[in-house]
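Quick note —
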Amino acid sequence: MFELHPQLAADTVTVGNLPLCRVLLMNDSQYPWIILVPQRSKVREIYQLSAADQRACWQESAMISELMMQHFKGDKLNVAALGNLVPQLHIHHIVRFETDSAWPQPVWGVAPAIPYSSSQLAILKGLLTRKIQSTNKDFEPC
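Predicted structure written out below.
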């Protein structure tokens, strides 16, 4: 049975579920940042997914990547599955701008997260929900 790692739950807001992945919004207003978590138990690495789930994971990741870059018009998109502190497989999708506070370095450890206000969060979550639904009819918003 799938359970979201407590650290991911603490740091993010759930946007919804794609057929394979839970879609999370990192609660850091400094960067547009989505995390996809395959809803499979005890999976730490992409190769541990079935072949069908690997394909679905990359398709969902590509869809989120394109959607984010089209909307936010970033200079670069960082996509990474690190998991040094959170062992559950999760894939970061971070839109980067040459003007952001961490550029060109990675976003980790540069500055503490600045959470969204409740109104910012509601607007962004609604926007992401509409955009994902327009691309994937199987998306289930939360």
